[in-house]
Design goal:
The complex is a heterodimer of chains A (342) and B (229). With 342 residues, chain A is α+β, with helices and mostly antiparallel strands. Chain A contains 14 helices and 9 strands. In chain A, strand 1 and strand 2 form a beta hairpin. The longest helix of chain A has 27 residues. Chain B is an all-alpha fold. Chain B contains 10 helices and no strands. In chain B, helix 2 crosses helix 10 and helix 4 packs across helix 9. Chain B is elongated, with a radius of gyration of 20 Å. The chains are: A alpha+beta (342), B mainly alpha (229). Chains A and B meet through helix 3, helix 6, strand 5 and helix 12 of A and helix 1, helix 4 and helix 8 of B.
Chain lengths: 342, 229
């Protein structure tokens, strides 16, 4: 054996044999390598998938200081605990004994457990009371968003200027409402009689004398005085007579006006017309109105967003009418059921 | 946070720390309404926070903390939201349930009743009529209680103690309140500020109205570690 032969043989013996069987672990087998690689990948994916789909989020075993307990990681706030204890026991928290506090805490934990169970059972989706409460809570949340950012005076002043007509003193009317009852007010003479009565009042004839002379009756609202706010006078007089009364200044007498119960005339004692109020005087009212208008704006915008995001199907027999109604309010139209199926 | 909120103010060191911690927060979030000195603003119906009388609760730290957390008529379901002042010169005075409007003369009579009962000069005959309206048609007693001293469980103010939330107690101020109603708002801070900050704010407000606690906090010696602020 020469040197060259010896080196060649050594090199040959150092190379791994690649033709061994699948289970021959002493030899390299590409098929076995690929199989092992594949298996490892599948096991890895399996572990990752299990972790992903069964994860419960970040679990803590320490109760944060602002909480008195965690129930399935949902906190029971200390402030709620204090308030609940005081409400339930009718004494201050510091006066409550440890046993009393523990009783309240246990009740709160029980409530939390039942609430969580209720969520699992989808009561928010099915129970009418819970649904009503949820709607109210979401509506109220909008107010919370508005109120946390108190409007500046300039914003309120702008709102006041834009809605100045809403801020005036309440108009009042003090008046005599006289009627020639229907039984007596027959024929064309009735209007002439009332016209004469009106003229007599304008001529400063005493009211009692006019009533007696022309056979009139004074209509006095039951249990009420003659001085009323505008809205109340409108109810008492009816729209037509109220419209006439609005035109009268102090001491004026209206022309006769036929009503369901006879022919009326109104003598105005004092008509205090609404006067615009200053921003300073109605500031708190402006703030409330501003908050309500912002709430409405945010609520509408939330609803638009939810509608846009939602998949709403309307049955054929209502789809057209519903869509028309929504179009009038500028909302995104819902899909009719058949169209959605396609 | 683990300390009973009402007990914090008995510890001068804790109180001093909380007051120093909360003052910048008060300045940033509360002073715009309640004023730099917590004096309130009667033009806007914002209560002062330095007095002994409280509209909601008795002014304990736990109650103040609850108000700061959840607000008043704030939209927070845990907030104070049991009643508003109806506007009796409106066709529908109250949004929560049906109440009859009052007539102009009846409102004037109730004003006289409040002034006379509060020891001010007024028309006694009108006050006698107003008392009946207070106890009957107006249903005022329902919130403000039969003795007119209010009910801090629902935030109904005492009407004869000379402290006025809106205005200064003139006939015009009282008329505005009875005729148009009131429903002041305090925002809920539970989403904006953390629990410890709100607790500290509650202590700050408590000390503003309880001078002895504030004095004790101010005169207490700083801790050796120096946790000033």
């Amino acid at each position: 054996m020469n040197v060259h032969e010896s080196v060649s043989q050594k090199a040959a013996s150092a190379e791994p044999r690649t033709s061994g069987g699948f289970w021959d672990l002493k030899t390299v087998n590409p098929a076995r390598s690929m199989t092992c690689f594949g298996l490892a990948a599948i096991i890895g994916l399996g572990i990752a998938g299990f972790g992903l789909f069964t994860a419960k989020g970040t679990v803590t075993h320490v109760v944060p200081p602002e909480n008195v307990a965690l129930v399935n990681q949902r906190p029971i706030l200390r402030t709620d605990f204090v308030a609940q204890t005081e409400t339930e026991l009718g004494k201050t928290f510091s006066e409550a004994t440890m046993a009393e506090r523990l009783k309240v805490l246990d009740e709160m934990i029980r409530e939390e457990l039942f609430v969580q169970r209720g969520l699992e059972l989808d009561f928010p989706g099915t129970d009418p009371d819970t649904r009503t409460a949820l709607v109210a809570a979401v509506e109220q949340q909008v107010v919370a968003d508005v109120t946390t950012h108190q409007p500046a005076d300039a914003e309120l002043q702008k709102y006041f200027d834009e809605n100045h007509g809403n801020y005036s003193s309440e108009g009042t009317m003090d008046l005599h409402n006289l009627v020639l009852p229907k039984a007596k007010a027959t024929g064309p003479d009735a209007m002439a009689t009332l016209q004469k009565a009106a003229d007599a009042l304008r001529a400063k004839t005493p009211l009692a004398e006019v009533i007696k002379t022309f056979g009139l009756q004074e209509v006095v609202p039951e249990h009420s005085s003659q001085e009323q706010f505008y809205f109340a006078q409108r109810i008492h007089l009816g729209d037509a007579l109220y419209g006439e009364a609005l035109k009268l200044d102090d001491g004026d007498v209206s022309p006769p006006l036929a009503g369901l119960d006879g022919v009326h005339i109104v003598q105005m004692i004092k008509n205090t017309k609404p006067l615009p109020l200053t921003f300073e005087r109605v500031r708190s009212q402006v703030l409330n109105d501003y908050v309500m208008s912002e709430k409405k704006r945010l609520e509408d915008s939330d609803l638009r967003y939810l509608r846009d995001k939602a998949d709403i199907l309307i049955a054929d027999d209502y789809a057209d009418a519903y869509e028309k109604g929504q179009a009038e309010t500028g909302a995104e139209p819902a899909k009719p059921a058949e169209q959605a199926k396609k | 946070m683990r300390t009973d909120p009402d007990a914090i103010v008995e510890n001068a060191e804790l109180t001093r720390f909380a007051v120093a911690y909360a003052q910048p927060v008060y300045d940033a979030h509360c002073a715009s309404c309640h004023g730099n000195e917590m004096q309130g603003d009667q033009r806007r119906g914002v209560p002062g926070l330095t007095g002994k009388k409280w509209l909601y609760g008795e002014g304990r730290t736990a109650q103040i903390e609850h108000t700061i957390l959840h607000g008043i008529r704030s939209g927070d379901p845990k907030g104070w939201n049991l009643a508003d002042m109806p506007g009796f010169a409106q066709q529908e005075p109250y949004r929560r349930y049906r109440i009859e409007p009052l007539e102009p003369a009846e409102i004037r009579d109730v004003i006289e009743f409040l002034l006379v009962t509060g020891g001010k000069a007024g028309d006694k005959a009108a006050a006698a009529r107003g008392q009946k309206i207070f106890a009957d048609k107006g249903q005022c007693f329902d919130c403000h209680s039969a003795d007119v001293q209010g009910d801090s469980a629902i935030g109904a103010p005492n009407l004869i103690d000379g402290i006025w939330l809106y205005g200064t107690g003139t006939r015009e101020d009282i008329y505005d309140t009875i005729a148009r109603g009131r429903a002041g708002i305090c925002p809920p801070w539970s989403q904006e500020l953390d629990a410890a900050t709100i607790r500290a704010l509650a202590v700050l407000v408590y000390t503003a109205s309880h001078k002895a606690a504030a004095k004790a906090a101010a005169t207490s010696r700083a801790p050796a570690g120096g946790t000033e602020g």
